[in-house]
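F.,

This is the one I mentioned.
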């Protein structure tokens, strides 16, 4: 995707010695605006009349990041009144570089670093300090400019380590995580293939202040650290949409989110890495996880678009469900009957309830060499969020082999999804849901299979 790099190098050949040499400390650097018409990968024909936002975007094609767009967090001791990272990790401005047309955010095991002793630490499970137990330095860019409503897109390869790679925004009252990825977790086989998007409530006085109030977990059919992929997030006045490689993963309307809609003000953009202590505890990390040179979250570009004239988008459009009676509005017709019907549903009149170990299956006709998205809403009613976690699994089997699956365990309705691509000789797959082997009480609704149309 470095199409612009040659033109930009030629245009600046007389003022810069190299277009591949990093120089993140050059605060006097003058960045060239991108003089081309670009559109989101999710809308290659630009039907939505998107306009590229130079003040919010960076192609990372020059010798430094665009200092009109970004702060390097911690540079000159300045954290812009924000946190210094999620303890025990801390942002180190020396861990940012631009090289060969890419932004690198490096995470290092750095016990000799002068870690801070103050500031909000953001640790989820304890009051652990910066550098305690796991002396890890990370990196962050914080946007200088704000925006409200638009489309964020990033082509990136995530860090191949137990560290996050994220693209997110904050503003008065709320936080939107366009994506959070975690490169490696030996205790959770889904982590390294998860696309996670969420909303956090920072409204003062709110009953859910400081909490994640909505999220979607989508299990990809690839590891996020293996290669570059394109991640998209649309923030419209009336809905949120999440994309992978141009394909629509999820659209959520403002109406359906209700009071959880916290994205109501101007936001600034973040690109960063953090220790996620709920994924891997700090005392389980070691120098071996980061190697001698550290691990890199590599970004090809970070783009923001706005619709021409600040027009609204089309909203969440219905997609054809290839699973007959996937909403159970016609009872258990077409399913192997191991569940019972309940009116305690996620949407509509009915859902399926499981009490005791059970499994349902459905064989669905599909196309060969085609990418699909399978999703459902599940409530694991016996989980107590303390010492009792009851798991259920949704998945797909092709020619007797499991292609992909996802785990549910929350005691409230939670939507999750996965994607898979059929083989060249495949014309049918079996989708399933099971609470085996634990057999906890579960409710299942909105079992949906659709084609996932990515951009070539």
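My design for it:
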């Amino acid at each position: 995707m470095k199409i612009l790099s040659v033109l930009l190098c030629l245009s600046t050949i007389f003022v810069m010695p190299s277009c591949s040499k990093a120089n993140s400390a050059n605060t006097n650097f003058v960045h060239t605006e991108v003089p081309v018409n670009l559109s989101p990968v999710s809308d290659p024909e630009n039907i939505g009349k998107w306009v590229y936002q130079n003040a919010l975007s960076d192609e990372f094609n020059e010798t430094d990041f665009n200092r009109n767009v970004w702060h390097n967090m911690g540079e000159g001791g300045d954290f812009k009144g924000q946190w210094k990272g999620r303890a025990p990790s801390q942002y180190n401005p020396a861990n940012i570089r631009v090289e060969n047309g890419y932004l690198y955010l490096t995470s290092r095991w750095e016990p000799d670093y002068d870690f801070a002793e103050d500031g909000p630490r953001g640790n989820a499970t304890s009051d652990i300090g910066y550098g305690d137990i796991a002396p890890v330095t990370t990196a962050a860019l914080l946007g200088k400019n704000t925006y409200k409503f638009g489309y964020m897109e990033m082509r990136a390869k995530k860090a191949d380590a137990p560290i996050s790679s994220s693209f997110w925004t904050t503003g008065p009252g709320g936080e939107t995580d366009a994506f959070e990825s975690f490169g490696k977790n030996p205790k959770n086989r889904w982590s390294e293939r998860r696309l996670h998007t969420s909303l956090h409530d920072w409204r003062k006085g709110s009953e859910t202040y400081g909490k994640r109030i909505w999220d979607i977990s989508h299990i990809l059919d690839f590891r996020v650290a293996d290669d570059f992929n394109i991640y998209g997030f649309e923030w419209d006045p009336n809905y949120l949409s999440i994309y992978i490689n141009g394909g629509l993963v999820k659209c959520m309307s403002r109406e359906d989110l209700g009071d959880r809609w916290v994205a109501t003000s101007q936001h600034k953009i973040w690109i960063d890495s953090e220790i996620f202590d709920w994924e891997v505890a700090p005392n389980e990390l070691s120098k071996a996880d980061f190697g001698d040179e550290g691990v890199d979250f590599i970004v090809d570009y970070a783009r923001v678009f706005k619709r021409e004239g600040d027009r609204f988008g089309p909203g969440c459009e219905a997609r054809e469900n290839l699973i007959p009676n996937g909403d159970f509005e016609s009872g258990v017709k077409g399913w192997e009957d191991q569940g019972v019907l309940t009116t305690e549903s996620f949407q509509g009149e009915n859902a399926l309830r499981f009490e005791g170990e059970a499994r349902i299956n459905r064989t669905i006709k599909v196309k060969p060499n085609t990418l699909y998205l399978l999703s459902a809403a599940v409530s694991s009613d016996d989980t107590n969020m303390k010492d009792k976690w009851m798991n259920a699994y949704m998945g797909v089997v092709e020619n007797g082999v499991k292609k992909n699956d996802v785990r549910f365990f929350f005691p409230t309705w939670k939507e999750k999804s996965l994607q898979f691509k059929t083989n060249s000789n495949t014309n049918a797959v079996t989708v399933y849901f099971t609470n085996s082997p634990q057999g906890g009480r579960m409710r299942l609704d909105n079992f949906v299979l659709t084609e996932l149309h990515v951009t070539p």
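Residues 5-310 form a domain with the Jelly Rolls fold (CATH 2.60.120.200).

Talk soon.
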